[in-house]
Amino acid sequence: MQHIVALCGGVGGAKLADGLQRYLAPGLLRLIVNTGDDFEYRGLPICPDLDTVLYTLAGVSNVKQGWGRARESWQVQTQWRELGIDTWFQLGDRDIALHLYRRELQLQGLSLTQISRTLAGKFGVRSELLPMCDGPAPTTVLTDEGAMPFQEYFVKHQCSPVVRGFRYGAADSLDVTVPVRGALEDANLNGIILCPSNPYLSIGPILAVPGMRDLLLRARVPVIAVSPIIGGAAVKGPAAKIMRELGAQVSPMEIARQYRDFLDVMLIDESDAGLIVSRDANDPAFETAPILMRSPSDRQTLAMTCVNLLRRLRD
Amino acid sequence: MQHIVALCGGVGGAKLADGLQRYLAPGLLRLIVNTGDDFEYRGLPICPDLDTVLYTLAGVSNVKQGWGRARESWQVQTQWRELGIDTWFQLGDRDIALHLYRRELQLQGLSLTQISRTLAGKFGVRSELLPMCDGPAPTTVLTDEGAMPFQEYFVKHQCSPVVRGFRYGAADSLDVTVPVRGALEDANLNGIILCPSNPYLSIGPILAVPGMRDLLLRARVPVIAVSPIIGGAAVKGPAAKIMRELGAQVSPMEIARQYRDFLDVMLIDESDAGLIVSRDANDPAFETAPILMRSPSDRQTLAMTCVNLLRRLRD
To answer: Over 90: is that where the pLDDT of B170 sits?
Structure first.
C-alpha cells in the first residue's frame, strides 16, 4: 500500500487532510502537524492545530464557527466568568475534556506523538496524526510592538501588530521524531503534500524543525504544495497581511520560492492561471486546478487532484 | 472583636460552620479544614473538604446530593464517557472550573492557604478558610484489604473494607501554617469548636499536623466538640462502622476520650442524655442539646448553643 504524507496547520490544512482521508484507503494518510501554536492555558496543554485536524478528521469540528467542537457547551467558562476569572482564550467543555485527558497522559509520561495516536484512536480517526516534534516549539511573532507568543498575537491582538519576522521554537534544539522520519523515509511513500496552510505560521514552524527540510530534500517522491493564496488574498487568516508587512508580493509565487529547494509543483487556483507566465526558470512549476474548498465534496475533489498530480509526477 | 475557631471536615462540619457564619458577625469565624482527603485526579487538585465548606458557606452547595455544586452540569464528564475514558470520580463542570483555577494559582506559586483565601473572596465568603497545612497530607486507610488512599476507600470501595487504622500524611514532616497558629494564639480568640465531623477521617488528620494538638492544649480558651454520633449511629458517613471495626463503642464518650487532653466539654444530643451517668472522673464533661441539623435554622440554633456554651465556660 502506498502512503501519502501531508504537512498541515489548522483549518485550511485540515480541510485538505479531510479530503485526502476520504479519498485514500484507510490508514494511508500520515499528517505532520504544526505544534508551533501550542501553549498552556490555565495549566491545560492546548494544541490548536492538532485538535483542529483531529476534530475535522473525526467529523466533529464546528464548521460554522471555524474552530472548536460541534455541539459544544460552555459551562466551565461560564463559571469562570461568574467568579470574575479572566477568560481571554475561549474554551468549551468538550475541548476542556480533551485537554485534561491529554494532560493526564502527559503526566503518565507519554510523548505528544503517543498522545496524538491515543486521541486519534479514541476519536476513530483512521489517519496518523504526527506532531512535527515532541518538545515545546512555540512560534514567536516579532512585531513592531515587540516579540509575542503566537496566541497573544493571534487571539489577544487579533493579528493587528505589524509583523517583522518569526522565531520558531524547534529551530534550536529539537529534532524530528522517529515516526516523522519514518513516514518521510518510508519505502512505500508515494508523495508529499504541503496543505494550503499559512506559510509563516503553520508550514514555516514545521520546516524549522531540525532535520525536516533535509528529509524533504532527500525524499525520492514528488513534493507538491497547494497555495493558500487565491486572487492575491489569503483564503483565511492573516497570511496576506503578513506577506505585505514583510514586503513580499501576495502571490503563490512568493510562497513557492520559500519551498524552492524541495518543491516540485505548486498547485494554484485556476483563476490565478495568469501567474504562470511570470515564472522564471528557477521557480518551481505551477499547475492550476479549482483549489477553493467550500464543501466536503470540494475537499475530496482537491485531494483527488493532488493524488493524481503526484502520480503523474512519479511516472 | 472576638473570634471563634472551628475545626471541620466535610458535610457535617460545613453545616455547623454555616450556622456559625450566620450567627456570628462577619469575619469572626476562622475554620481549620481537613486536607487529608485531597488528591489529584486527571491532573486536577481536588480538595473535597475545603470545597464542601466553601460551597456551603457560599450557599451554592448541592444540599440534596450531599456533595458538589448546586446547578451543576456534567458536559466534560459526558465527553470523557463518550471517548471511553475512565470516570470513577464524579466531576461536574463548575467543580472542574474551580479545580482548574486552583491549579492555575498553584502554578503561579500560591500556597493552598493563599489559594483558599482567594477562592473564599471570589465566592463572597466572609469567614476565613484555613487549610490544616499547606503541603500534601494524604490520609491512608489501613484495611484488611491493604493500605489505600482515602478516596479509593471512600469512593471506589464505598467504605466496604474493614478498617484497622489510619496513617495521616502530615504527621511526619509538615507543620501548622502561620495563619493556623495565628488563629489559635490570637489574643481575641473566644473559643474553639470541633465540628461534628468524622473523628478518624476529618478531625484526626487535623490533630495529626505537628504542632496542632499542642496549640489546642495551650489555648487559653474553652474547647468544645459537637458529637457526630447520635443514638449509637453516625449522622452521616462511615464513622460508626469504623468505630465498630476498631473495636470501639459507637458512642460520643469514645470520641471525647480521643480529645481528652484538650477538650473541655462534648456536646451530645439530648436523646443521648442517659450517657452522662456512664462518665468516669477522667472523661471530659458532657452537655446536651438538640444537635441534629436538618434545616438552616437548626444550623444557626446549634451555632448559638455552641457560642453560648463557650461563653459560659469562659466566665
So the answer is: no
User: What parts of chain A have a pLDDT lower than 50?
Assistant: none
Cα Dmax for chain A: 63
Give residue-wise pLDDT tens across range B249-281.
999 999 999 999 999 999 999 999 888 877 777
* A42 has a chain B CB within 8 A of its CB: yes
At B47, phi and psi to the nearest 5?
Answer: -125, 80
Judge whether residue B1 has pLDDT over 60.
Answer: no
- Contact (CB<8Å) A42/B73: no
Whose grid coordinates read 514545521? A206
Please tell me the distance in Å from B51's CA to the nearest CA on chain A.
15
Torsion angle defined by CA atoms of residues B135, B141, B142 and B148, in that order, rounded to the nearest 10 degrees: -90
DSSP symbol at A25:
P
Classify residue B282 as exposed, middle or buried by CB count within 10 Å of its CB (0-12, 13-18, 19+): exposed
The neighbour count for residue B121, using CB atoms within 10 Å, is: 12
Q: What is the 3-state secondary structure (H, E, C) of A122-151?
A: HCCCCCEEEECCCCCCCCEEEECCEEEEHH
CB interface of A with B, residues 61-90, below 8 Å: 73, 75-77, 79-80, 83-85
Q: What is the pLDDT of residues B139-149, one digit of tens each?
A: 999 999 999 99
Cα atoms in the Cβ-side hemisphere of radius 13 Å centred on A134: 16
Q: What 8-state DSSP symbol labels residue A245?
A: H
Q: Are B175 and B133 in contact (CB under 8 A)?
A: yes
Q: Which residue of A has its CA nearest to B45?
A: A43
**A310 residue type, one letter:** L
Taking an 8 Å cut-off on Cβ atoms, the answer to whether B43 and A75 are in contact is no
- Looking at residue A144, what is its pLDDT? 95
- What number of C-beta contacts closer than 8 Å exist between A and B? 79
E strands, chain A, are: 3-8, 29-33, 39-41, 44-46, 128-131, 140-143, 146-149, 163-167, 189-194, 223-226, 229-230, 233-234, 265-269, 285-289
Alpha-carbon span B285 to A271, nearest angstrom: 94
Say if CB A286 and CB A265 are below 8 A apart. Answer: yes
The domain that holds A53 is classified in CATH as 3.40.50.10680
Least confident among B114-123, B170-179, B185-194, B239-248? B170-179
Residue whose cell numbers read 471530659: B284
Q: Is A175 left (phi over 0), alpha (psi -120 to 50) or beta?
A: beta
**By CB neighbour count within 10 A (0-12 exposed, 13-18 middle, 19+ buried), where does B277 fall?**
exposed
Spatial distance between the Cα atoms of B54 and B58, rounded to a whole number of angstroms: 6
In this structure, what are the phi and psi dihedrals at residue A190, rounded to the nearest 5 degrees? -110, -20
Q: SS3 of A40, please?
A: strand
- Average pLDDT of the segment spanning B238-252: 93
Tell if the CB–CB gap between B83 and A122 is shorter than 8 Å: yes
Residue ranges making up the domain that contains B104: 3-314
Number of domains in chain B: 1
Contact: B97, A107; criterion CB under 8 Å: no
Subunit contact B75:A98, Cβ cutoff 8 A: no
Q: Do A93 and B98 touch (CB under 8 A)?
A: no
